[in-house]
Design a protein that fits this description.
Layout lengths: L23 H13 L6 H13 L1 E4 L7 H12 L22 E4 L4 H10 L7 E6 L9 H14 L3 E5 L2 H5 L3 H15 L4 E5 L8 H14 L3 E3 L11 H18 L4 E3 L7 H15 L11 E3 L2 H12 L1
Parallel strand pairs: 1-2, 1-8, 2-3, 3-4, 4-5, 5-6, 6-7
Helix pairs in contact: 1-9, 2-10, 2-11, 3-4, 5-7, 7-8, 8-9, 9-10
């Protein structure tokens, strides 16, 4: 198994989450100002943004009827997003070389993804992400959640998308949440990157979203992720900016750069462009790479494919 540079836990710092109050109106106004600061109007620029979004996508299947054939098709499409189209024009040759950042599946489907990517000689190009820790609720005994991480990594996962227990957020048990994330970081070790799913639609308040973001980063998360995609409220720009502010403050305190992954609700090229603009304007161009930013999506690739092929 490969070894990765990962975010090691730091001591619990309650002072970082004390007296936190997120001004919702100010947050909304900031989002509008940031997104409007960079208008993407030409088709050429929109295609460029769309292709960038493609390379930052974790192509996902988390359905109850997932089977080997579903995962096989997902991996083939992840490797060759435009393969089913007859692209013979030399100017479009580059499209054949593009691929997504990762595939994301349930732990029991990791082995299927590994075998398909191995067959396609793409294990070094595309990461295998697995949800874990009692996805999507997180309401399972801690040991079983840790065992799930180990199982997924032993099956070939290189990234683990944990889901935090939102009841700890709602009851402000921040130290316990921190301790659980630390244990999950230990279970991943340096064999897999850890993405912490906050489940923002079930965190109650924007203050809680900020605090949960900070706690997960203290505990060793390499990415903070908005949603499971199963909640009634998923990724949106307002909550995204709230999480970005937490990432910025964590960087100010520690010097560490933590990634961001919006998931659920990012379905169109226009949606992805707004996110890319916001990330670029707040965290900088360096964040527009798969090591620091991802989209968790199942339908976004469809819209990217449709739009790009209509313009090329």
């Amino acid at each position: 198994m490969p070894e990765f540079e990962v975010n090691q836990p730091i001591p619990f710092e309650e002072s970082w989450i004390e007296n936190v109050h997120v001004n919702l109106r100010g947050l909304e106004a900031s989002v509008k100002l940031i997104v409007s600061s960079c208008q993407v109007t030409s088709d050429v620029n929109k295609v460029a943004f769309a292709l960038k979004a493609l390379t930052l996508t974790d192509l996902t299947t988390l359905a109850g009827d997932d089977c080997t054939s579903n995962v096989d098709r997902l991996c083939i499409r992840a490797c060759y997003p435009f393969y089913k189209h007859s692209i013979t024009n030399d100017s479009n040759e580059f499209l054949k070389k593009l691929h997504v950042a990762a595939v994301c599946v349930y732990p029991t489907k990791v082995k299927d993804a590994y075998e398909t990517l191995k067959r396609l000689n793409m294990l070094d190009e595309i990461q295998i992400a697995s949800v874990a820790t009692g996805f999507p609720t997180g309401l399972y005994p801690l040991q079983s959640r840790l065992d799930e991480i180990t199982y997924a990594i032993n099956s070939g996962a290189t990234e683990i998308d944990i889901v935090i227990d939102r009841s700890l957020v709602l009851t402000h048990q921040w130290k316990k949440l921190y301790e659980e994330v630390v244990e999950m970081r230990k279970a991943c070790g340096n064999r897999a990157h850890l993405k912490a799913i906050l489940g923002i639609g079930e965190c109650g308040t924007m203050d809680n979203v900020y605090k949960a973001s900070m706690i997960c980063m203290m505990g060793g998360a390499d990415f903070i992720k908005t949603s499971t995609g199963k909640e009634s409220v998923n990724a949106n720009l307002n909550v995204g900016l709230c999480m970005i502010r937490a990432i910025q403050e964590f960087n100010r305190q520690t010097g560490k750069k933590i990634g961001l992954k919006p998931a659920g609700g990012v379905r169109t090229v226009d949606d992805s462009i707004q996110w890319l603009i916001m990330v670029k304007e707040t965290l900088g161009m360096e964040y527009l790479n798969p090591h620091l930013f991802r989209f968790g999506a199942s339908g976004l690739l469809d819209d990217i494919e449709k739009f790009v092929l209509s313009k090329c």
